Each structure stands twice: as C-alpha cells, then as structure tokens.
Amino acid sequence: MLSDLFCAVQQLHGAGLYSNVVELCSVANCVVEQNMDMLNTNQVWQLQVYHGDSLLEMKEWRRAEAVYREALQARKHYLKVRQIEGVSGEAGNSSEVEVKFKLHQCYVAMGQPNQAINILQSIIAKNRTARVSMALGRLYHQNGMERPAIAAYREVVRECPLALEAIRLLLTLGVKPKEVQELTLDGLGGMVDSGQLDWLGGWLAGQAALYSREYDVAVRELRGLEERGCMRGSVGVLVDQGLAHHWAGEVDQAVTVLGRAAGLAPQNMRGMDSLAALYAQLGKIRELESLATRLMGVSEEQPQPWVAMGHFCHLNKKSPKAVYFAHKACLLDTRNVEALLLKGQVLLDLKKLPDAMNHFREALQLAPHRFEAHRGMVDCYLGLSRQREAVTVATGACKHLSNSPRSLTLYATVLLKEPLSCARAKSLLEKAAGTGHLPAVYLLVELLDREGATQRAVELLTSQLVHTSTATLHQKLGDMLARVGQGQEEKAVEHYSRALALDPKNEGAIQGLQKMEANTDGMEASYDMNDMEEVGSVGRGSPPAGELEDSETEAVWSDGDLNLVASGN
Q1: At what angle do helices 438-450 and 405-415 cross, to 10 degrees?
Q2: What is the mean pLDDT of residues 291-301?
Q3: How many alpha carbons lie under 13 Å from residue 436 in its C-beta half-sphere?
Q4: Beta-strand (E) ranges in 463-522?
Q5: If you write DSSP's letter for every residue of 322-386 in order, what string do you get?
Q6: Cβ distance 100 to 122 under 8 Å?
C-alpha cells in the first residue's frame, strides 16, 4: 500500500515508468508548494533526483539539467537546516556525487564539455569514484589536457586494477609500460598467483608495443595470446592485432583480422571504422555496404557507422553525402582519426584544399603515427603548388614513422617533382623497394625507364615476382619487355595475360595487348607488301621469247596492280 505521494513516485521510478514519474512529479511539486509540511527536506531532495533521473532516461537533457540543479539546491538547504553529513536513508540514498555525475552527462549530451568538467571538478577529490575519474579523464583527453587526463586514468587503475580501457589510454598518452604494469600489479594482490591472470603479461606487452609503434612485436604478442589459448576468440585482442596491421600498412592482413573480429561480434564498434577505411581502399563496395548497414542497425550514436557510410558514399562518387557523414562522425567523437581522415580526403577530392588541410592537420596532431595524415598534408601542399612545405611534411613523416618504406616512398614522390632532386629520390626508392614495398617498386621502375635503364627495370620486376605476384607487377613487366623488344614480345604477352587473369579490368595490360596486336598487324601488312612487290617484279621482267603471249603479259600486269592496290588499302 502507498502511504504518501513520495512513495508513489518512488514506486514508479523503481518500476522504470519514467514518463509517468515526470508527469507525477510535476503534480507533486505543485502540491508540495501548497503544503510544505507534506514532505520533509530529504524527501524533497530525493523527489527532484527521481524527476531528473527520469528526464535523463528520456534523453531530455536540458530539462534534466535544470531539475538536477534544483535538486542540488534542495540538498544544500537540507544540509544547512539539519547540519548533518550525508543523506538520511528514510527516502532514498542518492548522493551529491551521483547527482553531479548525472549532471555532467547532461552537459556532455548538450555539447558543453567545459561545464561537464567544471561540475565534476566540484566533487572533492577524496569523494571521486572510479566512474567520476574515468569521465574526467575522457573530458581532459578530448580537450587536449594530457597531464590531468593521465592523473585521472591513474586513479581509475589504482582503484580498479583491471580497467583495461584506462590502461590502454594511459599507454596511448605515453605513460611508460613498466609504470603501468607496476600500477596494475600493485592492486591485484594475491590474484596474480591464482593463475587467472596468465594472459595479463602478454596483453600488456602487446598494448605497449602497439602504442610505441612496434607493430611487428604487437602482432607477435597478441597472436601469442591466441595461440596459447588463454584469449582465443577475444574480439578485443583481434581488434588490437588488426589495428597493428593497419597502422603498419599491411592492408590484407588487417582486413583478415578485423573481418574475423566483425564476424565473431557483429555488435562490436571498436576498430570497425578502420575496417571500413580498408574496404574503401581495396574498392570492396559490397563488403563496405554490408558493414555500414549492419553498424547503423547497432547504433547511430557512435562515429563508426557514420564513417562506414561516408566511405561507401565516397566510393560511389557521392561526395556531398560523404562529407555530411564524415562531419556527423566528427561531431560524435572529435578525436576520431578515421573520421578526420575521411573528411579530409573527400574535401581534397573536391579541390577544397584549405579545408582538407585543416582536417589532415588535426588528424596529424592526434595521431602522428598515421601515414594517411602525412600523405594527406603532402597532397594538399602539392595541390597548392607549395613544394617546400610538402618537402617539410614528407621529412617529418620519415621522422615520425621511423623511415618506414611508406614514408620514404612519400618523400621520394615529393622529390620527383623537382628534376634536380631525382637522384636523391632514386636512392630513397631503392631503399624502400629493397623491403618489397610495391609502390616504391612501381615508382622506381618508372624512373629507371625514363633514364633508359629499361633492362634494369625488368630485372627489378622479375626479382619482385619471385616473392609476390600482383596484376600491376605483371603489367609493368609486360610494358618493360615490350619496350626492350629483341624477341621479348612473347614474354610481354604472357605477363599481360597473367595480369588480366589476376585483374580482368587492368587497363594497362589491356592497352599493352592492344598495342602489341596493332604492331603485329602492321608487321604482317608490311610482309604482304614485300611479297606483292616480288610478284610484280617477276611480271615486269622480260620473259624468254615465245613463253608468254601479249595477252598473258597484260594479265600478269593487271593482277600485280590489283594486289598492290588491295595491300595499300
């Protein structure tokens, strides 16, 4: 049985009937104002909290914010009147910390991060729960306040040693792996010896290697966790492994691993923006459409579905829609690197170079380890004919990416724009091509061909085909062999055919075959002409007397003339 109006509100709130709570609270507030003795001060405070909670559940952020503010005022009045600490348990036990946390949620939803930070900072440090510290850390992180963010994440790990996301974020912010490990192990106590944490060392090593850009080590450690069986089928481990491949430029491996993660957990969001970018890079329209549709069905409040939709539209030449979707993703998460890269690339394709540059620059500040951000900046500067700035960015890419083959190739691409820098570009390409990086091989082949060293280009392509086989390698080798000539035409045709077998739409191979067929037809036509000339010379010669009549001689002349005319046409 309900004893009073407050109990009725409490019952509705407990039953999850939030819209009913809102309506009853609006009535209860009027009744309480007419009769102040109906509820005590503590009940008034708790009534406002129930009202705010219900509005929060209904996502009416602004109304909830106003009600929570009133609740805090009511509590302040209650503490002043009663002169006690904490809230009496007679009508609920909501604390000031909980209300301020919910108030911060309203500010975040309304896009007011500074107010969210202020309300959480107003909580005394000793009263901050791990949830409050995590929220503060995220807000500091989003606002570029790295030191306070590290301090907040440290508090989370100190209180909850297995808060894996907080551990990952500490490593992202550059905290030393040893320090993170010590912080984690200190709070685990005897659990370390129980055998339940045999995976933790390998996981920490994998995370540390991933965010210190030792991608091969990260893949090895994370793959080892799977092989040992302790984390087999872990979606989180697969995503981290896929990201390591992606950031290292190993596209095929990244697609395989991230695709496996998507298959195991179709509702998972983390890493799916990277998978969308990889599908777009490979031109896999069907897979990209399927991924985007599925992610949109999971949630529209995360950036990953919008990134996937943006890539799908961009791939289908619908740039205005792609810009909109990328912008939506940026609004949902201002630090989402894939969203910034997508928007920058679409704007670059639309020739809006200054706007594209702003997005690539922001991506570069957030993730200097991402090659795509460096390449985007270089493309923008080259589009604006600012060669010197492009060289500066490319040099920075080599520094940030530890002279990786991709960064060396990017630097060489910029240097090739200046004739006097070709020698330096050639040395960079030779270094990158030595690792088997195919874009460097292709550029070096073109450079050698321009220099007249076609035979050396053939040797380079032949050596690459020993280790890998792609349509472009076969097509370029066919081109080089066709240029060399000297009986290499059959080999050229063979490599063009192999290129088309791997990629039936390879335009270079199709054009190469057509060109060779045209040359062959021309040679056959010239042979026909020579044969006719020989026949004609016999007809015009002086035969022995009596062998040919006059009419026969005229017939030979006319046949020869007809043949000459036919071959000429």
Answers
A1: 30
A2: 93
A3: 10
A4: none
A5: HHHHHHHHHHH-TT-HHHHHHHHHHHHHTT-HHHHHHHHHHHHHH-TT-HHHHHHHHHHHHHTT-
A6: yes
Q: How do residues 527-546 score in pLDDT, each as one tens digit?
A: 444 544 444 444 444 444 44
Q: What is the pLDDT of residue 291?
A: 95
Is the distance from CB of 292 to CB of 276 less than 8 angstroms? yes
Q: Which two tokens stand for residue 235?
A: 């979606």
3-state secondary structure of 152: helix
Q: What is the mean pLDDT of the chain?
A: 85
What pLDDT is recorded for position 237? 93
pLDDT at 519 over 90: no
pLDDT tier for residue 87 given thresholds of 50, 70 and 90:
very low
- Whole-structure pTM value: 0.81
d(CA 290, CA 307): 13
Tally Cβ neighbours within 10 Å of residue 166.
26
Q: How many CA atoms are closer than 13 Å to the CA of 73, on its beta-carbon side?
A: 6
Q: For position 420, what pLDDT does the model report?
A: 85
C-beta of residue 100 within 8 angstroms of C-beta of residue 65: no
* DSSP state letter for 39: S
Q: Which of these, 68, 80, 148, lies nearest to 109 by C-alpha position? A: 68
Which of these, 320, 370, 81, lies nearest to 211 by C-alpha position? 370
Q: Of 102, 54, 94, give the one whose Cα is nearest residue 74.
A: 94
Is the pLDDT score of 522 beyond 60? no
The residues near 416 (Cβ < 8 Å, ≥ 6 apart) are 422, 425, 443, 447
Q: How far is CA 328 from CA 113, 144, 315, 365, in A?
A: 18, 21, 18, 20
The per-residue pLDDT for 124 is 92
pLDDT at 317 over 60: yes
CB 483 within 8 Å of CB 449 = yes
Q: Which of 162, 116, 124, 119 is nearest to 141 (CA)?
A: 116
> Which residues lie closer than 8 Å to 281 by C-beta, 6 or more apart?
251
Cross-strand bridge partners of residue 92: 90
Give the whole-angstrom CA distance, residue 140 versus residue 154: 13
Indicate the residue type of 197: L
Q: Is 507 exposed, middle or buried (0-12, 13-18, 19+ CB in 10 A)?
A: exposed
- Other beta carbons within 10 angstroms of residue 206's beta carbon come to 24
Residue 160 in 3-state DSSP?
coil
Does pLDDT of 201 surpass 60?
yes
The Cα–Cα gap between 58 and 22 comes to 10
DSSP of 80-139? HHH--SS--TBTB---HHHHHHHHHHHHHHTT-HHHHHHHHHTS-GGG--HHHHHHHHHH
CB-based contact 203:237 (threshold 8 Å): yes
The total number of residues shown for the chain amounts to 569
Residue type (1 letter), 379:
D
Task: Name the token pair of 276.
Answer: 């969308």
Angle between helices 200-211 and 164-172 (to 10 degrees): 30
With bands split at pLDDT 50, 70 and 90, how would you rate the model's confidence at 467?
Answer: confident
